[in-house]
Amino acid sequence: MNVEVLVVLPVLLPFLSAALSLMTWRSQVAQRVIGVGGTALLFVASCVLLYTTYHEGILVMEMSNWPAPFGIVLVSDLLSAIMVLMTGIMAFTVVIYSLSATDPEYEKFGYYPLMHLLHGGVAGAFLTGDIFNLFVWFEVMLMASFSLLILGGSRGQMEGAIKYVTINLVSSVIFLSAIGLLYGMTGTLNMAHIAVVLQGAESPMVTVVAMMFMVSFGIKAGSFPLFFWLPASYHTPPIAVSALFAGLLTKVGAYALFRMFTLMFMDDVQFTHNIILWAGVLTMVTGVLGAAAQFEFRRILSIHIISQIGYMLMALGLLAHTDIRSEVAVLALAGGIFYIVHNIVVKTNLFLVSGVVNQLLGSYELKKLGGLYRHKPFLSLLFFVSALSLAGLPPLSGFFAKFAVIRAGLEAYQWVPVFFGLLVGALTLYSMVKIWMYVFWRPLPEDHPMPERLNGKWDPKTIWMYAPIIVLTIATILLGVYGEPAFQVCLAAGEQLVDPSQYIEAVNPMDHMWLGEGE
Amino acid sequence: MEPLMAYVVGGLFAASIYMILRRSIVKLVIGLILLSNAANLLIFTASGLTRGAPPLIPEGAQFPDPMPAADPLPQALILTAIVIAFGVLAFAVVLINRAYEILGVDDLDLMKETDA
What we know:
heterodimer, A: about 75% helix, B: Helix Hairpins
């Protein structure tokens, strides 16, 4: 078998699963089987893809055999492969969780097909090497997420959806306009080819277009000051959907920023990456302060997403203050990528825990919750580990993710961002301790009688909710105490990013440029 | 032709932003429709307008005649973008209809229950 086929599998498999589960629309059992089987296959395919990419270098697949830059290429470098692997893990765990967490009523309205489409769109966005194709994958992902967001049709979901849909459409239009302007300047859509054309082009228009991309992806990633849609919508859908959104969707924006601002827009680093750096600092500070003011489990977690995005942006922005080929740049990018990996695991896990808490006590309001440490010590332990990991305590994954970013910041002599990075870590701990005190540590408030199911025997059906949480908790511990191999992969990914010529050579858009010579 | 189109695009963007900032959800959707059309025209204009020169290569020749021919790629992009925008806007129209049924208001200022 041709090894390039691996690149297309993470896109193909979810669409196949979506088609199959559409064909079995009436049978919920069949949809569930396809859901678990399809995402398991996606997980395996993404593991193989990362393994192959790590050992054999960047994989490129030319769609329909049209050579770059004329056809669409799917490119798997290490950053893409890592992100696809995270998609696979999240798809698999969240689908297993939804087996017992998602209301059967939702399943009748196409929960599983939409989930598969979302996975396919996300994987496609991570893998494509064509900028217009990236726009199309964003739209695939957005359409699926729109529909998942309003599944159930409650009041909050409608309000959240109007804001989410509007701001995402505006962001898409900015993205599309930027593509149009970029095409007008470079005459190509292939990202590697654009990178070649833009090399050394010190045109102010390039910076204008770069800023348009930055605003568009900044909206999608939830960066300061473009994040207001996120806390207004992410806590409204069914909890499994929230968990998947929280883990994956904002990270697609972060990935796109990493890709664009290491491959294409590297000529005015002082300007563009400084903006990213300071937007990152403001993002983490506003996110963590916003979370401190909240008293709803899911809202705290969703506003925390913003603060975590700040660290990723800070890692990328540090490139403004280092030599691009230096080890500091590699460390900053590797730290950013490791941070994304860590954050996807931990953030999804905390949302999954909040779903279990809601099922036990029937609420997400901190003031109505309590007493879980006495009745469910194991669940409390799972939350405790993830919460400490999010706050960045050793020896969990969050510590090493923050450590790498902060260390890169110190080596780039950026004291202010480093200071805020450490401060925000402490404030994150405050929010997590708040949840811990209210939900787990203190006794249940007296005016809220204890539900029967707390004392009842362990319900075997909830194994589907606990299993993913246990797996993800083990993942965050392993990424901490045995994180060296994972960090090595991230370092290799960082090395690929600081040297775009590897990406460009793999795609090789210049081989077929005979047309240009004739003019 | 390009300067005229630039003004048209600018006018469409301005009108759509004005409509998006209105309080009524129907006007919000009208704004979104204008916005996607403005982006399509922008792609069309930014990639160069060529009149009466289809990108067809005559038999036996190497290059289209007459040169320079119109660039077919932006038209393909716009076609794709129109289809996507159509799907998304159809969704948005259904969404505001459902939202009005469920919330009973069409004023964006009254939809602040979920705001942080």
